[in-house]
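Q: Convert this sequence to structure tokens.
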Amino acid sequence: MDYGQRSIDPHFASFFATLSAKPPGWKPTGVPMKMDTCNYLPGTANWQGYIRDGLAKLTNTTFYGVCNDFTWVVTSVLVTSKFTGKLFKQQPLLPKGTRVEVYGIIGTQEGKHMFTVVNRAADSKEGEYATWGPDCFVVDQWYALQTGTRPVKTLAQGPLYDAVFIDWWNATVPGTRPSKEEGKTLSNSFKPQMEFRAGDYPGS
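A:
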């Protein structure tokens, strides 16, 4: 399968732009919540449960905007073949078979971050985003919320290219920090945590 020939549907980008905005009248709930509520560890074998609960989180619950939970919901939305609840009329956002990956920036504690990578080229190097291909894009709802920008980012020049976002990546990876062991450093790196195919999960 060729993952490098898919273009971004404008509706796809607008769907996530809508999700990243706070609705009118938004205010804190005041209800104590666990900050990271994802119960699925990277590499879980229960992919169907991950998608099912991620979709439920989108429509049925309130949660802290930590990157792990955002990525959980985003990935679930991208790979489901069927939406339910108040989004039951929504059609799948990606062509069936599109590669969707949960990705992490891992290494130093302060540098850890999760986001979703879509359509990474099959012959690319997983730790070098410059090789991921012109039709690859990322969805980072957490970054969008912090910066007031669009959550969908292309890695090639175009309407959805975000130079400041890329500068942040370059500053963070392979950024180094001193470790707790004297004389040693830790380096951040990009690493896929889970891989899915769009359309393979009914979402319920």
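The two ends are 27 Å apart (CA to CA).
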